[in-house]
Amino acid sequence: MVQGLSLSTLASSHNTCVCGSMPSWRKHFKLMRKAQISSERNCMRHQNVFVRGNPSMLRPRNIRVEAGWLFKGGDPGLDATSERSESANEDILIFFFQLDLATRVQYALNMEEYDIAQQLRNKLTEVEAEVIRQQEGKRGSSSKSEAQDKAISIIRLRADLQGAIESENYALAAKLRDEISKLEAESLAVSAKALAHENVNYSFRLGQKVRHKSFGYGAVVCGMDPVCCESSSWMETAQVEKLSRGSNQPFYQVLVDVHADPNLLVTYVAEENLLAPDQPDMGRFDHPYVSFLFYGMDAAGDFIPIKQLREKYNRPRHEIPFDPLDEEHGGDA
């Protein structure tokens, strides 16, 4: 459904001109965003646009969604919906939209629709620039740039301070000295934040199956941030301040198995609240976004991220290959 809507709103067909009054990519995205997936079954019809690989992942399936169940555990008054994240869901939809635009650009080029291809490429450039800006902010690149700006300001203030001392303007010198001390403290804090972002160690991988420690639902990791990047109101609702590691720990975007709760969809979970299975989990996992983000499953039951997703989070490819002998003998050695 995500692709179907974006295809129809970007250009109704390859014979339809998208010149002139074509809305901005944000308006297209808002249209796509409004068409939230009503059920996994509807979404599965369109799951063959981006993903290449395991054919079984691309085959539409009739899935009966079990009734949502009441999650138990955790603090009183806190349930799984407290970690549901609209911003994480929107981030994934923008990623879909970006892939869809790239697909349409290539299609237009193949059809020699060069004007349409250029317009779509322009929109793709806008989306990519916005995605890069968001990624840099999450990875601490903006903090690093801010630290550099503060360092330059400190150098300038020190030059002014020297000039004030030489001219015996001690009142100005005292004021400049205070400003320098304040900027030095701020620069140190920003540099520490940027360093922490660069050196973060994630305990979980893209595509890895996990289970929520408190609420018990099964999920798959599809995104990660070095620290909590949600709003203060979201953190208050999710009671992030009560976590033993607080907000300064990795947080993960996870897809929740629709059989646990078909309405939860995407949650944003602190690293300390996730558990990896002790044994390979080859069990069934269904979610409308799985076939957009992953090729299929490896021998441990984890999903294999598509190249674009790995590049988005700068993560290496990791998968446990199947043993041909196991496949030949039906898994019996």
TrEMBL record:
The keyword Transmembrane does not apply. Residues 110-137 form a coiled coil. GO terms for molecular function: DNA binding. Pfam families: UVR, YccV-like. Signal peptide: none annotated. Keywords: Coiled coil. The keyword Amino-acid biosynthesis does not apply. NCBIfam families: yccV. This is Hemimethylated DNA-binding domain-containing protein. The lineage of its organism: Eukaryota, Viridiplantae, Streptophyta, Embryophyta, Tracheophyta.
